[in-house]
Automatic annotation (TrEMBL), chain A:
Metal-binding keyword on record: no
Organism phylogeny: Bacteria, Pseudomonadati, Pseudomonadota, Alphaproteobacteria, Acetobacterales
Coiled-coil residues: none
GO biological process: transmembrane transport
Biological source species: Muricoccus roseus
Main localization category: membrane
Superkingdom per UniProt: Bacteria
Nuclease recorded as keyword: no
Protein name: NitT/TauT family transport system permease protein
Listed Pfam families: BPD_transp_1
Key words of the record: Cell membrane, Membrane, Transmembrane, Transmembrane helix, Transport
UniProtKB/TrEMBL annotation, chain B:
GO cellular component: plasma membrane
Species the sequence originates in: Muricoccus roseus
Protein name, as recorded: NitT/TauT family transport system permease protein
Principal subcellular localisation of the protein: membrane
ABC transmembrane type-1 domain sequence ranges: 54-232
Amino acid sequence: MTTRARFLPPWLMTGARFILGLALAAMLWEAAVLLLGIRPHILPRLSTILSAIAATPGAYWSGFLRTLAETLIGFAAGGIVGVLNGVLFFRAPALRDLLFPIFVVSQTIPVIAFGALVVLWFGNTMLAKAVIAFYLTFFPVTVNTLLGLQSVDPRHTALLRSFGASGRQQLLRLQLPMALPQIFVALRLAASLSLVGAIVGEWFGDTTGLGVLLLQAMYNENVVGLWAAILCAAVLGTGFYGLVALAERRILFWGAEQ
Amino acid sequence: MNRGALRGALGVALLLILWEGLARGLALPSYTLPSVSEILLSAWTTRQALLTAAWFTLAEALAGYAIGCVVGIGIALLLSLLPPVRRGVMPVMMAINSVPVAAWSPLLLLWLGVGMASKIAAVALAVGFTVFLSALAGLDRVDRRAADLMRSFGAGPLSILWRLRLPTALPLIAAGMRVSTVRSLIVAIVTEMLGAYGGLGWIIYQAVVQIDFVAVWSAILVASALSLAFFGLVGVIERRVIFWRSS
């Protein structure tokens, strides 16, 4: 390690390296398209895409916000229901046996078909998109919560019980904290999945959102517009994933990696 | 049959009875929720079209799945053998992966057209990344001391890869492949909905446009059955091949 590294806070170093990496990637992209003569039909120059976004920032910004809202609502609902389900299944194995196969089957239903039904049920609203995002996220969180709770050493639970801890105390003080690393693995996956749900949900004739921008660009064979929407989706996906990962590192301060 | 499986069957049966009772008792219109018997009947009468579509979708999913697995595992092996290349390539991989598959689908459709190629590519992309990431995680999981021991006996990198790393990584690779089965069919169907000449996604799209929701449900039925069968098959193969799997 260099001496300078020690005086800079680590987050600043990470941030600087991240920005440097981004700048490098942007230059590589631009240079590759120019030098290799890639046709704009395949991959337009990054500067072209960015200027397309700059030309109509309003459309992209409102689409970004709309999709973000849908993603967040779906993710939050999926996360909460997933953890509650996991706890419920852990406490009541009979219920788990009864319901788990149905959950598994529900996950084999293609989102797109489910989306068509949800839009019909809830109308073409933001709620419908959030429900689709929810549907994609609750299952992985349920599974990992259950796995995490089941992996708690029964001797620890027995010790707590011998001190007179109630079931709720055992759950909140021991079992849930021990399960948190597993739960966060699922939450990170859910962050990506909820975005997919929101985007696909918007394909059913909405007017704003990144999914709408994607479809419109596809129908107009507007490759630059398509790439602009893809870029926005990547920023949204990476940002949200990063936030969840950051929360994970803050909350799991004891560093229980797996 | 053990008690868990019995309860599971009971749960599914209860759900179906509840569903049928709700749909009939409240006389729900079929665009809200058709009864189970109605869906089964419709699936049976349109079985010819559904089977053709299912075959179409399955072919796309299987082709994409095979390509995705081979490419994903291949790249993971290559990168684990060449650490300097890995450091350069990984950020690019993560950047591609940060874009949801659903966002790539329209682009693939523009590039490769409405035919099967765009669906196969979308499935290969989704499966490839899942398998690639799990394979890389598996290859990294090898105990350093075991690798050092083999090296001290004069084993080369390839020999260590074949005898130690790959067997250690296989359970994780298999887990990635198992998760990918369901995903491959879903991605194929999603991409079909954006434009296709056939397949379950195409049937679902047309049924939605014609507001024929019994047809949507029967296509869902076929798609779910197909996914479960594919998932089960890969699970069986996995248990046969990876007999040393610890958990």
